[in-house]
């Protein structure tokens, strides 16, 4: 065997060894901290370079795409009126709930949390894993395992942070699992991502009553996500009498491919920039 | 060697920026892999050791931009590097069509590897963005190979 070949084999063995060591680290995110300066640098470049794109996009959405806006506006106004009435009713329910909670000696859950806005910067380099990079990091009070929401519902949680950026694991990612509860029937399960725009609600017994259209919310059991955050709506229920658990598909309330602005849910008493 | 590597990493940074910030901004589910083209480029134009070092470090640099398990992305690119290195003795890699087809095939293999690693049923990923991404990866591959070749020439370094 020539000297060149030995050299090649040694290098290959070294490279494979390095990969095996990295794989054995599993999901240890601390390793990627060393590469965070790169993500940081990209975030500054990103803001500058994406500006012309945002301008063109804005020009399109604000002027060209405004056909039929008048009709849409009318419909939205009607919708708004309905929502306002609903809101007033909800306000009543909320006040009553707060009163009852206070009577029982419990604190209102949502008073413990504060929302920090962030903007989407980039997305996962693969088409399979569902993570996004946002323009807020540890200096903006974003922290690992911080829940991330949009006005429509739960988006995911922060998995790594750098001073000015954070990586968010979306609920549609196959690595995501969230303890959930069906709002109407209080049936508990675990919502898992499937890598697509549909979620799986797992570990729900076949004997439990689950209906299409039911709302799925966080149960707050694992301590990361606050209780009662909307995850989605039951889209399909497949019962098999020979299986212990029902196969339930959930449509997420947030369309992940269209998210732009999101909020990190922090605990009260911390200041955002 | 150092000048070539630094130049290649400069180009890689631009490629990564395009992949994570610009391309998904145009179509959120579209992914174009420019590192595959660069990998084929370094196999053609650089020595084995230089190419291997570049592919290892470049794939490690991709890690913070993905939710993939640590080490998984380097493993895939390393597999790609060794596979194409072996194919070098069988295929004429300088051929543009060969580069295009290889890039499409490796892009699909990588995506399917992610899918299998996650225990997802095959074919559940959105097929159109995947096909469009693979095709774009293939089309851009000869360009990336040419870029690597030009870098080597500009740096006046024999492989």
Assign the structural class of chain A, choosing from mainly alpha, mainly beta, alpha/beta, alpha+beta, or little secondary structure: alpha+beta
The ordered H/E elements of chain A are HHHEEEEEEEEEEEE
Report Rg of chain A.
Answer: 23 Å
The percent range for helix content of chain A is 25-40%
Look at the structure and name the CATH superfamily of the domain at 114-268 in chain A. Rod shape-determining protein MreC, domain 2
Shape of chain A: globular
Largest sheet of chain B: none
Oligomer: heterodimer
The overall average pLDDT of chain B, rounded, is: 87
> What would CATH call the class of the domain at 114-268 in chain A?
Mainly Beta
Poorly predicted parts of chain B:
none
Report strand order across the widest sheet of chain A: 1-2-5-4-3-12
H-E string of chain B: HHHHHH
The N- to C-terminal Cα distance of chain A equals 63 Å
Could you explain the architecture of this structure?
The complex is a heterodimer of chains A (273) and B (159). Chain A has 273 residues and is of the alpha+beta class. Chain A has a domain of 155 residues: Beta Barrel (Thrombin, subunit H). Chain A contains three helices and twelve strands; from the N terminus they run H-H-H-E-E-E-E-E-E-E-E-E-E-E-E. The longest helix of chain A is centred in the N-terminal third of the chain and has 36 residues. Chain A is globular and about 80 Å long. About 2% of the residues of chain A have low confidence. By secondary structure, chain B is an all-alpha fold. Chain B has one domain. The model of chain B has no long low-confidence stretch (mean pLDDT 87). The chains are: A alpha+beta (273), B mainly alpha (159). At the A-B interface, helix 1, helix 2 and strand 1 of A face helix 1, helix 3, helix 4, helix 5 and helix 6 of B.
